[in-house]
Amino acid sequence: MEKLSRQPCEACRKGAPTVSDAEIALFKPEVPEWKIIERDGIMQLERAFTFPDFQQALAFTNRVGELAETAGHHPALLTEWGKVTVTWWSHKIKGLHRNDFILAARTDEVAK
Ligand SMILES: C[C@H](O)[C@H](O)[C@H]1CNC2=NC(N)=NC(=O)C2=N1
Q1: For residue 13, is it within any domain?
Q2: Which among 3, 10, 73, 79 is least buried, having the fewest CB atoms inside 10 angstroms?
Q3: Nearest alpha carbon, ligand 1 atom 16
């Protein structure tokens, strides 16, 4: 069997299910700081993290990049002085999958 970290991300497969309203109600309390937004008709999870300077914002960006590579699932990252905006959604299904909530929770862990 392939290493787990090498296995394809289920959320990144065409036809994977987007989350239902019931699932959103279940998962959202686990990531209370994240906003569910709609951009270009696509539901996304977004959170801005603040830092005292650019270097720490950049270091956090790279840690999130590593977790994304490990998961095979990639966020949009906007790095600014003292701020990183992280946005998760599943490109292949143009919406939110359970996996996006899992990765939002992991992003919170990386920020601790
Ligand atoms: C081949 C590769 O696994 C896919 O293209 C992955 C890469 N990372 C991805 N990340 C996200 N967020 N959504 C995707 O659909 C996606 N697809």
Answers
A1: no
A2: 3
A3: 12
